[in-house]
């Protein structure tokens, strides 16, 4: 008799019906083989179902039920975790609530930048203030003027006006009490488009034609008609067009020298001149404003007369320019302030002379003071000629004309041949 298992198999595969009626429903064990599916097995296997959440605490009225998809919190197993460390104290260099580190290098750069800005404000602000105090003078010449020429030419005038000086100051400075004003110093500073600047002295006793006043010493033009007539006379006598005008008086000259703390001069020999109140030893020495004025004005004790005088004037002017532009002056706030304000109160500029031109003039004077410029005197034929105006200086007309023609072309390359 076939076994029960064989009967089951025969019935399952349809080989024969079960002799004992329908088979009751049976549950296959987990490892039993199921019916074969003819379709290929899917390549993707669905994820296993999430485990059923653990039962949580019962909800109470007024509270939300726990999220069935969220695993409820359970106390961690194992030993308790160590408490977090206390925050460490802020290291040096950290300040403020955020604990940001302040970089010393960055702080130093900011401080330096602030100092640079303040220095620039000081260097620019002081001259700007002084510029607002500068006096102006009408210097526009009359008559026909030379045309515009290359470069720039400045007329520098040292006036012997006693205006503003008390009797005691006139006596102290040895200026005398002559009424009116004349030019004690006349110079032309030419700045070419390229090449060396040239500082040219015109002796104040030069015998020239003064428009509307006949022939006379050139310094008389200032007494007859002030700056406009002097400028017209210079332009007519030289053929050069004057682009800028600067004038300084006796008192102003002394103030500028004293603001600089004096000027060092090296004397080739001792000087004793009662008229100029001078008693100086040979050698290098510091001259204050009063002594420096006497030194540049001295004439009787100089055997070369007016020619020696103009050389000392150029020497002094170059020394003043050199010291005024030195780092010691710029870095000394007291000296810088005094110099700017003394210069502003002491000089007068032409109506059309600009700040830019004054800067050009100052740089050119510094170049001359450094020995990189030319210092000349108008070529002279007779330094002591007898004229209708008394003893006067006569120019060498041919050489003087050639020199001024070179300057009018903006060419200073060959001017050193006129140096004496």
Fold and architecture overview:
This protein has 420 residues and is α+β, with helices and mostly antiparallel strands. The chain has a domain at 136-418: LCP protein (Aminopeptidase), CATH 3.40.630.190. 35% of the residues lie in helices and 19% in strands. The chain has eleven helices and 17 strands. Strands 3-14-9-4-5-6-15 form a seven-stranded mixed sheet, with helices on both faces. β11 and β12 form a beta hairpin. α2 (104-131) packs parallel to α9, α5 (250-259) packs across α6 and α6 packs antiparallel against α7. The longest helix is centred in the first third of the chain and has 28 residues, at 104-131. The protein is elongated, with a radius of gyration of 52 Å. Residues 58-63 have low confidence and may be disordered.
